[in-house]
Design goal:
The structure holds 2 protein chains of 2 kinds. By secondary structure, chain A is α/β, with parallel strands linked by helices. Chain A folds into 2 domains: about 90 residues, Alpha-Beta Plaits, CATH 3.30.70.20; about 325 residues, Aldolase class I (TIM Barrel). Helix content of chain A is about 30%, strand content about 15%. Chain A is built from 15 helices and 21 strands. Chain A starts with 9 loop residues before the first strand and ends with a strand. Classes of the chains: A alpha/beta, B alpha+beta. Chains A and B meet through loops of A and helix 6 and helix 10 of B. The complex binds iron/sulfur cluster (SF4) (2 copies). One iron/sulfur cluster binds next to helix 1 of chain A.
Chain lengths: ~500, ~375
Amino acid sequence: MGVNDMISTFEVVRNEQRCIQCRVCETQCANLVHYYHPDTGLMMSDESKCVNCQRCVALCPTRALKIMKNRCRMRENANWSQDTILEIYKQADSGAVLLSSMGNPNPLPVYWDRILINASQVTNPPIDPLREPMETRVYLGRKPEQISRKEDGSLDTKLAPQLQLSLPVMFSAMSYGSISYNAHASLARAATELGIYYNTGEGGLHQDFYRYGAHTIIQVASGRFGVHKDYLEAGAAVEIKMGQGAKPGIGGHLPGTKIVGDVSRTRMIPEGTDAISPAPHHDIYSIEDLRQLVYSLKEATEYKKPIIVKVAAVHNIAAIASGIARSGADIIAIDGFRGGTGAAPTRIRDNVGIPIELALAAVDTRLREEGIRNRVSLVVGGSIRSASDVVKAIALGADACYVATAAVLALGCHLCRTCQTGKCNWGIATQRPDLVKRLNPDVGSERLVNLMNAWKHEIKELLGGMGINSIEALRGNRLMLRGVGMTEKELEILGIAHAGE
Amino acid sequence: MKPEGQVRIPSGCAISAMISKNGERMSGEKIIESMKPMHDRSNGLGGGFAAYGIYPEHKDYYALHIFFDSRAARMECETFMNEKLDIAKSERIPTRIIAEITDEPLIWRYFVLPRRFALQNSQLDEREYILRLVMTINTKLDGCFVFSSGKNMGSFKAVGFPEDVGRFYRLEEYEGYCWTAHGRYPTNTPGWWGGAHPFTLLDYSIVHNGEISSYDANRRFIEMFGYKCTLQTDTEVITYIMDYLLRRQGLTLEEAAHVVAAPFWSTISRKDEAAKEQLTYLRTVFPSLLITGPFSIVLGFNGGLMALNDRLKLRSMVVGHKEDLVFIASEEAAIRVMEPDAEDIYAPVGGEPVIVRVKEGAF
Ligand code: SF4
Ligand code: SF4
């Protein structure tokens, strides 16, 4: 026992009166927490390995298990929290950068929770979505500055390529490799059924999923993993990933343990190699280079697919977005600092980037000031947690939202934040066949469809309450929002009034 | 309390309109009368009229109607206008002193054309030149507000009940082939003369009944194209939208109606292929100009008018005919006052525009 093993974060509490030694917890735990002690005939646990994914709790037939925050704590210290101290032990032991996953868990402000939505009273009627049509369809893509007519005088309806969404939500990038085959299958099928899109992430597209291409956004990231002609042609849109909210300024990380079998084939890299994509695209060192990549991809796809440029929300995001809008991109995706990830250096995840709410408001305002808001659609992600977050995002000015954490939660993720280990007990962030098969894509896709349909109903109710019967009339409609408990400056950036004004 | 323009004030309303397809000119008498049975739809805090064909003797000049807070404001504005415009005639707009209308500003009209060199230097077309000049006066010059700027037409408005506003402006002395009227029911404003309807831009005038829920989405979109929504009223933003769609984008009235009161996707899916393509295109290109929430509007322009309801028809609006005359109002009672024998009275379907044009050459 050394310094590192002194304190486990969690405590496994087993009710011996309930436990029947069925050993389900043992077989379910990829972290090897539970084991059977033949001498005593009792179940034991090595809680230092526990990540609190709640798999054993959920599957224990007698409900004998509880995973608790360890009551054994180091001495309280407001400056040196236990987590900080344990991280120091870890680094002193390994000499390495700390890795973690999912979004920034720290108690920084969540602006969504400080924004409230309007409703109609007296001067105009709320609209009842159960009795009146309520529209949630949106089109993403560049809109023409001037209409034109054909010789017979009718409108020339030729448009830059557009994505049609049945509701303004899409599943954002999660690569095959970082998540499992079954997770991808669930997302692809759900997106197809819902009439929205999922995103391949930077790991290429598995051969089996080409048939969902009409509802697939394929990603081109700095590592160019799995990028080839058929891949580019397979999707409905191409996304250039410049950055990600969880780790702005660095590339993707996929530990070698997850690069096995089909993952390695799909990525077109050898098995077992760490897939570390470079921080920049080495052909993009400036905005004019981005323009060239945008147009190369447009050429390669014969101008039939919209090009999305995805960036992390960073300090200068408004100017960056304005540059991207002028680079020929059809859609800008902005990812806030709370966005999830399969693996990121802890320091970067927890300290780099800005909240999506402020980034979105700043970008939308800037693009309107420059009169170019219509040239691009705006998609935002980085912790959109519910239908009301979606409504607030649209009212601030987004065309649509990207969700990933909410989607994996629907698949069973318990947010244990250890995806980087590849031992996801819920069959999501893993490539181990015994774990992957725990996620049934039939069930997974159905749960995703349920979640999105539930959100759609809620969006309609919120819209109806505001007296709006189409999501289009909510876009940028900031008068429908009020802030609570915010400073003048925050309100100014968000472009909303304080509640009571 | 913040004055109108710095705060958004919801209001309900009454509207009424009459037009002669043959271009016969009619006095303002009937339209004033039509507002009386709808008295309770206004609350005395705003009323107004637009009249087309009233200035035949100056029909080639833009008729600017302006409110001034003071003589100094008028002097300043006239100095500004003299640099940019040739003013053919300037006069006080005749009014009648009545007990019901008080606190009137100075109300003047000017018949103008752009100065030739100034216009050339600006590289703008004539209408755009006038439009920008009006915007400049309204946003930059304190105490001056241009409330009408079209050719051979004029708007007349005030704080008061519409029937009193009509008498105040002696509208029975004018003759026009098309009249529209408005009574306002703002919820919480002391009332400001500029805030009354109709709202106008060049020869477009809008009277509107309703409170739109898409306001800020529409406003923030349209402001990208050089319009400034200084009044924060629905009517103002609807007028700018119409100007943008009709004049700048070159859409037809029907197409513009299908943008602002777009048919539901479910309706579009039942149309024939050609219509489906055109309607889908309009909704894809101009989603931010969809207007939701209750409204009935009458858009007047030189040579005609268009009446339109929101797509759910959340506000009343009826249409009636008699020979070459067409009547439109919030209530049938108003039409009956204008023409007791009006025929074919019907309530148009939400989102379907009623377009009436005066015979070519008759205006
Ligand atoms: S799953 Fe429950 S009952 Fe079975 S061995 Fe583990 S704790 Fe005991
Ligand atoms: S995906 Fe799996 S490993 Fe990652 S946070 Fe969720 S449950 Fe934990």
